[in-house]
Amino acid sequence: MDWKTDWGLRGRMAFTMFLLFALYVVFVGALTLYFGDFLFPLIMLGGFSVAQYFFSDKLALRSMGAREVTADEYPDLHRRVERLCQQADLPKPAIAVANTQVPNAFATGRNRKNATVAVTTGLLESLDEDELDGVLAHELAHVKNRDVMVMTIASFLSTIAFFIVRWGWLFSGDNRQGAPVIVAILVSIVVWVISFLLIRALSRYREYSADRGAALITGKPGALASALMTIDGRMDKVPKEDLREEAEMNAFFIIPIKAGFVGRIASTHPSTERRIEKLRDLEKEMETA
């Protein structure tokens, strides 16, 4: 496999992390004003960041209702992932399955040695062999690109800012109406909105990069394009109740839940049509190479 570093993705990850670090500094200043103490915000943010770094994968799996499965339970799935990992020059990740009819897959974990690739039963039932390989390779490409770890770190600031916006008044005590509290919450709103949009923009680009990586791993861009069309068609048949249950995990989905213009701006994924178009172009390039 002729794997080439996606410098566009790395540059975007570095730029996003730089901007989020600048927001982090502003945010700590706002929390210092809020609590009247510099040490407490640092301890609080440090504790949350450590917890998210080490336990975000387990929380993601639990949120999806996914559990790790053995090779005895899903022998074909394990064989596929092992073969694709050999082609991608990656250590084999843990494999998890979520019992839901929503056809989807996601990768999580802080590094290549601690990664987990999860799929739903709906996905396994929907795709043929080549399509399933394409989706699994897409998730492995996320692991190889190390963008799962970056997204985990990047989402931390947004999560804390949202927490302050929603629940900060509970910790304000007698100073609930004071200017420091109002300023801290207003800054938190700004931090949350900016970090949310930065993360979404980065996430949409990383999906294109993972699509290209999947094509290199399998040598079949058309298989992933076919899988995207199959999943997109199945999503229209999934009950809305199931979609609402899965909405919180939309950041990991190979197919996002659509919600008009605002949904596209806030989406973690580009449109299916655009992804398929790029995969078809890549398929032509590989055929003529």
Polypeptide structure, described:
Its main location: membrane. One of its GO terms (biological process) is proteolysis. 69% of the residues lie in helices and 6% in strands. The chain has 11 helices and 4 strands, in the order ααβαβββαααααααα. A 4-stranded mixed β-sheet has the order 1-2-4-3, with helices on both faces.
Main attributes?
single chain; 289 residues; mainly alpha; 4-stranded mixed beta sheet; 69% helix; HtpX_protease; hydrolase
Compose a concise summary of this entry.
The chain has 289 residues and is mainly α.
Shape descriptor reads elongated
Beta strand count: 4
Helix/strand order: HHEHEEEHHHHHHHH
Strand percent estimate: 5-15%
Class computed from helices, strands and strand pairing: mainly alpha
Sheet having the most strands:
4 strands, mixed
Helix content: 55-70%
Average pLDDT over all residues? 80
Can you list the strand order of the major beta sheet?
1-2-4-3
Could you tell me how far the N terminus lies from the C terminus, measured between alpha carbons in angstroms? 14 Å
User: What is the CA-atom radius of gyration, in angstroms?
Assistant: 20 Å
- Number of helical segments? 11
Pfam family, one: Peptidase_M48
GO cellular component, one term: plasma membrane
Subcellular location: Cell membrane
Membrane topology: Multi-pass membrane protein
Helices, strands, pairings?
Elements: H1 7-35, H2 39-64, E1 66-68, H3 75-88, E2 94-98, E3 105-108, E4 116-120, H4 121-126, H5 129-145, H6 147-167, H7 179-218, H8 221-235, H9 240-246, H10 260-266, H11 272-288
Parallel strand pairs: 2-4
Antiparallel strand pairs: 1-2, 3-4
Keywords: Cell membrane, Hydrolase, Membrane, Metal-binding, Metalloprotease, Protease, Transmembrane, Transmembrane helix, Zinc
Membrane topology: Multi-pass membrane protein
Family: Belongs to the peptidase M48B family.
